[in-house]
């Protein structure tokens, strides 16, 4: 696996220091910078330091985590955000998913588990804790619109690809499963982004849930 570029933003300097020291020792993880405020984070990104994954606290002095998420979303970055917060509540999961957050975790998560989640987010674009699935069921799928059968914007093959994406399959695995080339699988994936308006893999999962292409129970749990 290639090296994962990670940034940490939290206004608790002790948390940042301990987390940086631990993660820097892990295989294939490189902490490219830390920041103690949303403003400092954005300055570093503007200077060209672009992480693949951002570990972000919610409550910070000045620009809080929610404002950071909105800013990064508006800037259309490809940064995958893992929110790690002492203000964690399961009921916030639907909001976080809709905001494009790749994972939402309590601050008490073990460092070992956090490493596993970082790799999962790098690999598949999102991560759900076991108990979050039932919350997503009530917050998202319960409000799902009725499918408009007369206006099926996705082709049958695109639906097949979308279902496999939701099952954590890579483009290579999708190609092997559907007997198409990896390049063709990537093309279908790009079409899905264009047709659904999703900005990331989490957005495709939301679309699939809302349009009943998959059910909550079909989403894999690591």
From TrEMBL:
Pfam families: GerE (PF00196), Response_reg (PF00072). Residues 5-122 form the Response regulatory domain. The keyword Acyltransferase does not apply. Keywords: DNA-binding, Phosphoprotein. The modification 4-aspartylphosphate is found at residue 57. Residues 147-212 form the HTH luxR-type domain. The keyword Transport does not apply. PANTHER family: TWO-COMPONENT RESPONSE REGULATOR. This is Response regulator transcription factor. It comes from Flavobacterium rhizosphaerae. The lineage of its organism: Bacteria, Pseudomonadati, Bacteroidota, Flavobacteriia, Flavobacteriales.
């Amino acid at each position: 696996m290639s090296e994962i570029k990670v940034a940490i933003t939290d206004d608790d300097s002790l948390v940042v220091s301990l987390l940086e020291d631990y993660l820097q020792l892990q295989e294939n993880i490189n902490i490219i910078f830390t920041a103690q405020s949303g403003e400092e984070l954005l300055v570093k990104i503007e200077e060209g330091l672009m992480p693949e994954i951002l570990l972000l606290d919610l409550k910070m002095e000045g620009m809080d985590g929610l404002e950071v998420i909105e800013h990064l979303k508006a800037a259309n970055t490809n940064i995958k955000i893992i929110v790690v917060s002492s203000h964690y509540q399961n009921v916030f999961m639907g909001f976080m998913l809709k905001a494009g957050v790749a994972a939402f975790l309590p601050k008490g998560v073990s460092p070992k588990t956090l490493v596993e989640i970082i790799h999962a987010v790098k690999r598949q674009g999102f991560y759900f804790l076991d108990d979050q699935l039932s919350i997503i069921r009530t917050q998202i799928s319960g409000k799902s619109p009725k499918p408009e059968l007369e206006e099926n914007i996705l082709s049958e093959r695109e639906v097949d690809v979308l279902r496999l994406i939701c099952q954590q399959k890579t483009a290579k695995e999708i190609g092997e499963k559907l007997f198409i080339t990896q390049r063709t699988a990537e093309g279908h994936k790009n079409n899905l982004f264009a047709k659904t308006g999703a900005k990331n893999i989490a957005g495709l999962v939301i679309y699939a849930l809302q349009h009943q292409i998959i059910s909550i129970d079909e989403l894999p749990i690591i």
